[in-house]
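## Example pair
The file below holds two records. Each record gives the amino-acid sequence first, followed by its structure token line.
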Amino acid sequence: MANRKLVSFDFAIKYLLRQKDNFEILEGFLTALLNEPIEVLDIIESESNKNTEILKGNRVDLMIRDSKDRRIIVEIQHASEVDYLERMVFETSKTIVDNLDKGKDYGDIVKVISINILYFNLGEGNGYAYKGELKFNDINEKNMEKARLKYPTDKLPEYYIIRTNKFKNIVKTALDEWIYMFKNNEVREDSDTKGISLAKEKLDILKMDENQKREYDKFIHNRRVSNSILATAKAEGEEQGRKKGLKEGLKQGKEEGLKQGEEKGLKKGLKQGKEEGLKQGEEKGLKKGLKQGKEEGLKQGKEEGLKEKTIEIAISLLDILDDETIALKTKLSLKEIQKLRKRK
């Protein structure tokens, strides 16, 4: 049996679910998400969706007051928003402030639950349903259970983020039934989850009259135009950023290349200069060494020749003079004279 095709949930929130007869659909979804029976008392008109025409086609929200006097904000957004979480916190805080009458104590603040159904990937992670709340942990305690500070949380805000793009159409829980509907604009015929049966009847496209169909077609068209405008602006921004980045990258690359080239050239030049200097130094040193060696050789030869001549004179005097006199006349040592006399 084919699944029942329904209008998109953002269209339903904007035009259909604000009617009291359809509160049961909202109650079914909220019960599945919050894990407690929810009774919707009324819908409070939200101001957060009155920003621009572009956002009107991209974002839909409503504020619910339930039987516990809590404020439940349900927002659906299709296009990505860089500061989405910051805006979510701001609007939650603003709701708390707006509902605290002047002169009332802080203990009288209203409980706010922010539910965000997103059709873009917010942050990192593989999950599709997240809950956020205020918690305090002992920074010196490693055990998370023991680290938790126990205190009443019935008045503190809660945040829920549903990332439909991460849902893999595997239905295991009542909440999965609703997320399946949000993502695919249809419900499974065998679903018996609270509120789903009424959604089949109230949100069935085939049961819309001609005026409702035209209104729905216009709504979908406006959303597509809005998404196209935002996507175009993003693409143009990325292209401008790419060109600017390329220009800056070329400039930076040239500067870094020049610097690296200088360092490489300096290193190569030092090596080559050292080799050439060593070669020239060797040649110069050889030339200088030859000259010095020649001079020292001549000097040494001259000294040796003079020594030999002195020895010859000393030998010729051995027969006519005593050793002391010969040593005095020739400048040879007495020991050298005695050695010459023995040789003779």
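Second record, same layout:
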Amino acid sequence: MKKWWKNMEYEQRATVVIGALGIIISLGYIIYLLVVANPYISS
């Protein structure tokens, strides 16, 4: 797991980190909408 991380260039690492953060934020936002906004939409 660590080998491929060390072999990557800095730009590639940044891309992977930003991509992962984007996915996590998107999932969190969708879950937030489902949990928080759902009662308001259905009522």
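Notes on the second record: The two ends are 48 Å apart (CA to CA). The helical segments are 2-7, 10-42.
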